[in-house]
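Q: What would this chain look like folded?
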Amino acid sequence: MDTNNLIYDIEPVEFDPFTEPGISPAIPYMPFNEGNNKIKFETVPVEFDPFAVPDSLPAIAAVNPPAKNGNPVYHTSPVDFDPFTGPSISLIAPATEPQVEIWTSCLIGEAPASCAYNECASLLLTGTFNKDAMLRALQGIVNMHQALRMSFSGDGKNICVYNELKLHVDYQDLSTFSPKQQQVFLKNNNKNNVIIPFDLTNGPLFKTSLFKLAEEEHHLTFVAHHIVCDGWSIGIIMQDLSKLYSAYAKNEYINLPSAPLFTDYAIEESALTTSPSYKETEAYWLDQFKGSDHLLNLPVDHPRPALRTYKSHREDFILNGNLTNEVKKLGKSTGNSFVTTLLAAFEVFLHQLTGQDEVIVGLPAAGQPATGNYRLVGHCVNLLALRSFPKGDISFKAYLKQRRTEVLDAYDHQLYTFGSLLKKLNIARDPSRVPLVPVMFNIDMGMDDDVEFYGLAHKLISNAREYENFELFLNIAGKDEAPTLEWSYNTQLFEESTIKNMMDGFEFLLYELVKDPDILIGNVPMLNAAELSLQLDAWNSTKYPYPMHTALHKLIGERTTEMPGKTAITFGDQKITYKLLNESANQLAAILIENNVKKGDKVAFALDRSAEMVISLLAIMKTGAVYIPLDPQFPLNRINYMLEDSQAVVLLTSKEYKGSYTSDAKELLIEDTFKTLKNYPSTDPEVDVDGTDLAYILYTSGSTGNPKGVQIAHHNLVNFLYSMQNAPGMVAEDKLLAVTTISFDIAGLELFLPLLTGAEIILADTATAKDGRALLDIIKNEQVTVMLRLTPGGSCSKPDGMRQPH
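A: My prediction, written as structure tokens:
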């Protein structure tokens, strides 16, 4: 190829020159000769006005002239694209560390994680309403506060502040709707606000809606992403909004003081990390967690998913006014605020729930007052991980006094990010859990203090999120005289009834503590102590009725009577009905008895996975003998040891392994015996076997020496199978894919549970059992409903689309 005279193909692409690094279109590598090359690009002149309205741009027909010098020529066409559209950016500043942490969380957890940061609140406004004044005021707060005009760079490391940002207010007149229709509309609108993720790179990250319910009733909602707005900020926004609205409604001039710039705050926070005080703060937090287990293990209703989830629900509980006053009095008597008193009580409550002496709770702390930026809007929260020890041998009053100093110290050292602490603690990552602080305690009381709209009464409404970052989040909202306890919880971990019990239990605890503050923490009663005792008795009562005196093969035989023509085993193209399975096992049992196998003898088998292997298991049981499972894939010396140690009298094997093993056992080849089955009776052998007789001996791996034989009686096996039949459960319509080596104890579950239930075994051969793609094909082709994969931790998983356990 002549590379000295090339004409290159330039194809039009959708390309934004202002996209962030990492998401621009890939540009193919072009060959280049280090010689004296001249690369030619051929273009076609077009009529194009870069300042024309896009719709007026001329359409350019595709032109494909003949190739020049054997090289094809392609031509470009103009696209409707103006790189200068959109709001102009006034400045760029580094994002704060907490903002980067949120951005990273949203990136990893995707839409659900991002929606967990959607902050949504509403104001119900009653009275004479001035729509124009409200719209002006809403635009005014966007103009006033930088954070409401921000977006983020593609890597999340920088904030981009727009010079101007036109706020779109979703205004709708719902006054013709019935009250019920209005409530349904508002409910759906609130839900949309919290389930639709924000676009962090393009914004806007602050949105509003205004709905007219009646002539003198309006519903204002604002939703912002937590990365630009915190609880303190919402209070500032409402204060400024009410002042601007009141001035505009009265047609008065207003000159609010300039709001602090979030970019200044961000730069100061960045500089703080190099200061001596920062090192002292870091040392304080690292010292707090010396010797910590770093785990608050809440008892949950459901197994934790392998990857943490975010779906949540909220239950609200209004604290009794008299109880609220008593809690305040208790706090005052020990020099504590209402907040610290509630926090300390909540820590004791968690101690009761978990039984742990070490309790770790997350507490968000507003950074605005800590830095003197009282009117700053933005994400200025520092998450404090509070570690405490509400041990049973100290009184609550003493504990409360102790916590006063400790909580104040934590507030004094709040200028250290939670992410930085996690990095330093080097906690092992568990994708199923929230690290360090699965439980949060927050105070949002008095958010609408100093909020007064001219001619309007207002009611602040805290809208629940649909997604939550924490397993349990207790937020104290509302007014001082009757706070609302908002309990948000992960719905994939907790049932609603459990959370309601927690709510009642926490209220009961508060009553007990204000009644007797000197009570030892270990003696504080629980609301449902009697109920809990009964529940524990029920959990510990593991008795379950099962036919303990009946041998397993007899129970399987009952399924044969009930469903003789139903398929019991599928192995490749081979299908064995329950009738054929039972009759074949009886005939093979007769052959074994003919070979002097007696009740209590040990009969080993070394067979590849097959339908004949399952028939052999049942046949050995029917003789009253004890089967010894040997996997032919095991080392030869290990199999020989097990044959000798068990003193097996017969070895069932195949021609492939004939003469491979050294033992005193009589060797019977399965191919030969199965050819003669028709010569033997298909009725049950007359051997009396009951639940106390041994069913099999299973050998350990021998990792600490020689393998050791473990004896399993029929009643042991039947007990286990009936338990698994009950939970997670199996029904006759199920198809179980059996893949486990016969020398592993779970093989008994895979093979016998379906037969005991009247279900079907889909038996995989040795090669297929090790091939994930082949197993997937079997699952699809055979419509498998159950596949057990039991790990050393005891968990059981099922592939997607399979029936869930009962």
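The radius of gyration is 37 Å.
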